[in-house]
Amino acid sequence: MKITLLGTGTSQGVPVIGCGCAVCRSTDARDKRLRSSALVTAGEVNILIDAGPDFRQQMLRAGVSHLDAIVLTHEHNDHVIGLDDIRPLNFRSGQPMRVFALPRVASEVRKRFEYIFGEPIPGLPRIELIEIDSDRPLVVNGLHIVPIGVQHGRLPILGYRFETLTYLTDVKSLLPSEMQKIIDTKYLITSALHHEWHPTHMNLEEALALVDQIRPKQAWLTHISHHMGLAAEAGSRMPAGVSLAYDGLEIPF
To answer: Cα separation of 189 and 198, whole Å?
Structure first.
């Protein structure tokens, strides 16, 4: 199995429109961050985590020709607004795309893509929404997935555990009951926005505290703002066992 980080940036991406900071002007590929998304591959099975505005570009760059399902963390646009671009995958498979989401998130998807769920019209995306919660593990094409309830500020969202790897984005805090689901994870990917306090995202200090609590074999930080600093410089200051993630990173587990 492996996970490919298709995007490791925030809702604005990096570079940010109109910004002239050193990170946004950087020519280092690690400083070019699309919106956060990841692809989990187990044999021929492909499971996508989130489909944001860069979905099409990410699928083309990764050479993805099919998806077996999409699991959504939450309903913010940078995680769902690319769902219209599943159409070529529908056409190839002849099947609707299974999309797993919290009931609240599924409701928001129906509102934003109302035209998909009305009377069937040829050429429109086809989605099968499947409502889930953090207490119910999933089995998708034989792949065992454990939803993890986390808080994005005051908004309850989901992270996901795939066997020995846990993926958390847009996280601010976890309840102790949810922490128990990941306390023995070997590989952790978690968001770390930048250095300053933020009401809905962990900053670097908080993310490192979470890593220290879980003590995985290796951790990677994602959902990174341009305020984190240049990847080469910020990455060199990470403690042992922690790395800044970057777009295109592949992690076997």
So the answer is: 19
